[in-house]
Every structure is written in structure tokens, then in C-alpha cells.
Amino acid sequence: MTGLLRELVELTDYHRDRCPPYDRVLRALDVPRGLPGAGLEDLPWLPVRMFKTHELRSIPDSDVFKVLTSSGTTGSGASRIYLDRDAAGAQTKRLGASLRAVLGPKRLPMLLVDTIGIITNRREFSARGAGVLGMATFGRAHTYLLDEHDEPDIAALKDFLAKHGDQPFLIFGFTFLVWQYLYEVAREHSLDLSNGILIHSGGWKKLADRAVDNAEFRARFAADTGLTRIHNYYGMIEQIGTVYLEGPSGDGLYCPDFADVIIRDPLTFEPQPIGEPGVIEVLSTLPRSYPGHALLTEDLGVLHGIDDGDWPGKRFSVLGRLPRAEARGCSDTFTTRGTAA
Amino acid sequence: MRQLFPAPAETTAERVVAELSGENPLRFGDERVIDFLGKLARRLLAPDTARAYPELAALGFFLRPGELRKVLDTAPAPDGGYRFPRGLCFHVPPANVDTMFVYSWALSALAGNPNIVRVSPRVSGAGAVLLDALAEIADSAEPAVASTQRMVSYPRDPAATGAFSAACELRVLWGGDRAINELREHRLAPNARDLTFPDRASFAVISLAGWQAASAAERRAAVEAFYADAYWFDQAACASPRAVYWIGAGEMAEARDEFNALLAEIVALRGYALEPAMAVEQRVAGYGLAADGRVRGLDFGAGVATVDLADPADPPRQWLAAGTFAHTALSNLTELAGLVRRTDQTLIQFGCTEDELAEFVAAAAGKGIDRIVPFGSALRFDPIWDGYDLLREFSRLVTVRAR
What we know:
Number of strands of chain A: 14
Number of domains of chain B: 2
GO molecular function, one term (chain B): acyl-CoA dehydrogenase activity
InterPro entries (chain B): CoA_reduct_LuxC
Distance between the termini of chain B: 51 Å
Helix content of chain A: 25-40%
CATH class of the largest domain in chain A: Mainly Beta
Pfam family, one (chain B): LuxC
CATH superfamily of the largest domain in chain A: Luciferase, Domain 3
Strand content of chain A: 25-35%
Shape of chain A: globular
Protein name (chain B): Acyl-CoA reductase LuxC
Oligomer: heterodimer
Keywords (chain B): NADP
């Protein structure tokens, strides 16, 4: 049994002991304690949406240090993720360790492809804001590329590059913002980003209608701005602190050593072989304050290979969102989509 | 605002109301309406359409002149009295049951009413085919029909909904509770009223004795009929069964396993394609019930998710996911009568005797369940719906006593 499997098996019982609703689900599924003979793919998983419909936590009320919420775009409410002090510390630590693999040990000057409003406007604190805030800890000399009107601040960008552009610097942002604002502006003004290390996330959907996919994104950045150190990443608030980082050559996303990924058949949920798309399950030993160590996401992905790329382990891609199930019932109403009256 | 019937055109609420405010040329049970609906029926029963959309074939069957006359026979004028159209009716059908707007509208037209039907802008599939069929026959409609019937589609527009509400004598609202509450904020005229069809829940009952007495072929036919009831609208119509009650004194496990095996076989045979998102939905729903402590066991087969309910008195009434059934057992139907609520609508049954059903209805005493039908008839529209005799609702009586 690998260390990861042993830890995840232990974690399953750990959460069963502390989170009664979780234990009730596993009992209904007839999952035995200790999971004798189980492999990684046999571990019981929860649909990630359970964190929107149920309060699932493995810590008492008095230990709750932070509640993370993410409003989905699906209208079914927000996920609520409960962290105690240890969990909050551990997630930052693990995230830092994962990022150091590509950023090196020192904090780098940081260009954020966003507006400062995304973290200062507490009233509309969003998942995007949480992402920016979480990542900002890993840089210094923060410069926000967008002004309060979401327009690129060219002067600030030029100023940042004049000060820090001749040594490694960190760029962070959501994929479509990075493309729409950083790439287009840098190309237009012939800016040199060759010392940059770009960390980005958020998916390709908004870029699909511009016919920009990952390969195109990387090639154009390299050709027009000199930026070649690009790492897409995949992660979610329900497994905060666990990021699946893209390898240096862009050959797929990789799991940190305390996590794993399984692609499952979207109907039978059996594990898919390499090359077959399916629903992404994410496994991580990080969630200890809530039973989020094995989650079935609502994202589609595909496994490209194991131990055959930039880094050891599995490499995979995210293909997009699972379309939302829509029922054709009588109670499907005009109002639920805001067109009543 | 888009007018879809009689002629496609841009229009306004004021214009629609003005056009329908003149003298009503229709009578209760008007032959011109029967004739027009008969033309629609023929279109819907055309082999290509009927094959592609069985729900349209069912609607076509319902709209045939012979069937409509049978419905009319159920609402005769009272002795010494007269039955007349109620007046302008405004229908807001559910957004996603493609064919429902026609049942509601057709019966109201049969009663001789001018009608405004608000068709969902999201109409697709069978609903779109239906609108095409209506458009094709619109030209040949008698002026008395074309001039009194309007189907319109518009996005959120409180002014338009308000105008239609103020002008109508009867407002027919289908949909979720929230939608209905929101729509009812628009004031009606003092003499007008609402006929509402809000969220409902429906169940299946299977008599264990009836099941055991049935032949293998009868059992299979029963499950095929159940399949149609449950899967037709992704189990989300008000009349779609969600919980399955096994009724009897003996051990249910064997019968239930046989039922589930047959259902899985039929789901596979019919090529019902569970979408990946729906497979996830089944898990979210089943796991959610389990987390809430309402479940003893869960089983997920191909296209059929089975929930072993912990407490028969606590069935899921909300939609779970297509192909998700909460099974439980009770020793007799009278126990079920104690559990039903006003919001419970249809009981589909297999194997119960007439006496058992009569006993159940007497025990439930109208506090829930409006309709009991055999397996296979859950979605078959009936002119008595949610306990309302629709033709009577759509008409008014004038009584005469000379002395």
C-alpha cells in the first residue's frame, strides 16, 4: 500500500468518526470501515456539489476558524468549506510548497492581472478574489495590471517591468484576463516578459470563441512577448491548497505528492484508461477539517500518461464543465430563470 | 411581444387584449373549435410526428373530435339551465412540459372561451413541433377561432402580465410554487379568479399480493408501463412517481429485486440515455438523502438509482434526478392514507383491488391524492386534473326558474 493510499484510507475513517452525515452516506453505500483491500479507485468519493447542499465538517463549531464560500454559477447556492486553524495553516503551507517547485525558494516581484478591487471590495468578495488573495502571499512588490475600471494600466505595467523585468518575476491571473489584457497589451507595446513565470487558471471556455487553446496560448506568448515559463493550474475551493500544476512544457497537469486524480466514466464511474475522457475525481490528504479528501468534480478531463512527461506521476487535462442536468418537469418555472411576471 | 398564433407577428399586450375584447362568437362546445382541434390532431398523429414524439401522439389522440365530444358529454347543462363560456382566459403553462399548454388551452377553447396563452420562450423539441403544426393550420382556421385565440411569447414583462391579468375572467397558472406566487401579485378583476396548478408530488404503489399473483408477462408489462410513467419527462412531471410503496404483509425484498432487475433491463432495452450530468445528479440526490439520515441503503445501477427509504412516512417529494426511486414498504394502503398531504397528486398503482383503493380514498378523505391510475397512465392527461373538472372551471352556468 502506498503512503498516499494509506493516508487516504485513514482519513476516510477519520472523517467518518467526526462527520456524521458523511458516515451516513458511507453506511448507505455499505462501505466497510478500514476499507480492507481497497485501492485508490475504490475509495468512496463525494460529489463536490454536496458542499453546496449540506453542511459537511469534521470539526466542532468552536474550532471553526474560517468558512470559505464559493458561489457556483449554477444557482444552487455556495459551497461552504470549514477550516480550523490547523487546516488553514496547512493549506497555505502546501500551496506554497507546490508553487516553490516552479517559483524557486524566494518571493518574486508579482504582477497580478486583475484589479485591486477584487480583494478590497469585501461586499462582493468572490472566488476570483479569494484566488488572488491566496496567491498574493507568494510574491512581493505587488502590481495590479487593471485599474478600477478593469482597464489595463499600461504605465504601471511598464513601470513594473522597468523595475523588475530583468530578473525572474511572477505573473498571476485568470486565463481569460491574462489573454485579454496582458497578452494583447504586451504584444501591442512590444513588452519583454521573458523573465516572467506565469501561473494562471480558470479554464478555456471564454477563449474558445477566439480559437485560443492551451497550445496557441503558449505559442503566442512565447513568440510575441518572450514569455515561456507558463503554468496553468487546476484547483477548487472544495480542495483548497491542492493545486494541480502544469508541467514546464505544457504537457499536462500534475498532482502534488499528497494528491492524486482519477478520471471516471461519466455513467458507470469506473476508472477510465489513458486517453479516455471522463469526470475528474480529485484525491488529496489535505482536507482534514471537512470530508473533502475524495471528490467527484463536475469537470471533464482526460489522462494523458503516467511517468512519461516533464515530472513524475500522472498528467492530465481539464476539458471543461459537465453540462448541468436539466429536468423537464412541471415545476420547472419561469421564475427559476428570472423571467416570471 | 411575439405572437405565435394565429399568424406570426410582433404585437403588444394592449393589442392582444383589444383584439379579444369584442363580442365572443364562440359557444360552449362549438363545432368550429372541435373541427379546428381535429385538424391539429391529424397533424400530431401523422406517423413521422407520432413516432418522434409519443407525447404529441397522446395529445393528438386526446384532441380527436370523438374524444372531445366524450369530454363534452361529461359537462351537460343542468336541468333548466344553460352552460356558457366563462370568458377571456389567460394561461401561463409550465415552461418545460412542452405539451401542457395545449391541453389547458384546448379544453378552454372547447368551452368556447377566447384565450391568451403565454408560451415559454424556451419551448423546444415537442413544443416547437406543436407550434409549427398550429402555424400550418392557422390559415384554414374559421375566423371565429382565429379571432379569439392568441398564443404569445415574451420575456419577463410585468406590464404585459398585468394587462392580461386585469383583462381576463379566469387565469390558469401552472408551474412552481414560487412562479405562481409571483404571478398572483398581478391583480385580477373582481369577478375573475385563478385556477392554479402548483408543485405536486406523486407516488407509485405496488400490492405485494398483486405482484406475486401476476404472471411473469404481467409483471414485465407492469414495469414497462412504470418505465413510461417515470422516465418520460425525466421523472420531473408532477405526476411522475418518485417514491415507490410496496404494500402488503410479507417480505418485499425478492419482489423489489425482481422489479428493479426488470426496470434496469427495460431502461437498457429502450436505449434510455442517461446523461453524465444526470448520473451525477442521481448521486447528489441519493447521497444527500443519506447524509440527512433518510436512507438505509443506496444502489446505483445503469440508469436506475434505488434508494432504500428509512422511514415510509418521510418520502422525498421533491424531484431527485431522472431514474431515482425511493422504495419503502407499508402493510396496507390505509397506512399510506395517513401520510398523504394536500400537495400529493397522483398515485399510480399495480395489483391493488378496487376495494383496497376505495378504502384508501375513504381513509385519505380528500386530504391528499387527487387521482389514482394504473401503471402506464401517470402522464395521460385527464379533463379532471388536480381535482378540478376543467370544462366546468372553464364555463359558467345560467339557471332559469320561471316561477
